[in-house]
Give the backbone structure.
Amino acid sequence: AERNAFAPIAVSVVDATGHPLVEKRMDDCPTSGFATMASSKAKTCVLMTMSTRAYGDKYLSKPSTPDMYVRLLNQIASAETISFPGGVLLRRKMDDDDDVVVGAVGVSGAAGAEDEYIALTAVQESSVADLLATEPTEHQCETVKGEP
């Protein structure tokens, strides 16, 4: 987040059942609500077996309508599932096309595409990157100042 001058973020990493493994919040991340949303993004990924971007694309009407905004506000209030980008599904990378979900990363605090970029970059730069496949595989962030 700092490398690209994104807003401070909260991060949640969950296992395949949605239980938290790690939850962190940057200094100056404005509210605990972002930590809740990061956790919800990660949990949504394992529950729905897709990224939160894919979940939103699948279930939210296009173009945006007033009823969609009401549903989004309800998601924020209940924070059980959430359809904002920033949730990245993690699968075990195997030669035999095994698609076992091993967990997810959720990021919240910046813009949705920035949250997603941060989650993907964190996985790609981690010590277990060679063992994991992410969904999505590529980010859609247009505000990145420079790739790592």
About this structure: The mean pLDDT is 84. The beta strands are 10-15, 20-25, 87-92, 101-108, 132-135. Helices lie at 32-48, 52-59, 66-78, 112-124.
